[in-house]
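Tokens help. Consider this.
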Amino acid sequence: MHTLVMIFFLMNLFFPSALPQAAASAGAQATNNIDPQIVASSDQYLKGVLARDPAAVSAMYLEDAILMPNEHSMLRGKTAIEQYYREWFKANITAFTFTHLESPVVGNTAYDVGTYKLTMLPVPGVTINESGKYSVILKRSGREWKAAYVIFNCDSPHQAAPALANNGSH
């Protein structure tokens, strides 16, 4: 897995124009490389988020996991990750879906790359519809898959930011 990540970064560094062509040709194959175990783990995460249950969500992470959320500093460890979700859930998440682009298993490591759509109601009368992308590196922990590294970011700034400012929210 480490080798695969290094190859990607080296290709980007030395052959940046080759990546869009490689990605386009791999696009047709990517949808066939989705492991049902990883999708099931992802579905469990989604259930925890929609239930706004920070303990259930942080249980999906390894003890030493690293979370790299959008517009936020990197978080290390389940305690920090659980606290992040505790605060995030105050935004009243009402819908959350994933589209898996690729999620293969390689031995005791897997990754899941895709896009997401999220709807939240941070204050009455204000709806935020967000779309973005994510990458997750998972490791087998007993019979379960746990997130080791998670990074996600939205495609555009929050459209509701001015409305939140006008309502006195931060």
The first strand starts at residue 61 and ends at 68. The CA atoms of residues 125 and 163 lie 9 Å apart. DSSP finds six helices and seven strands in the chain.
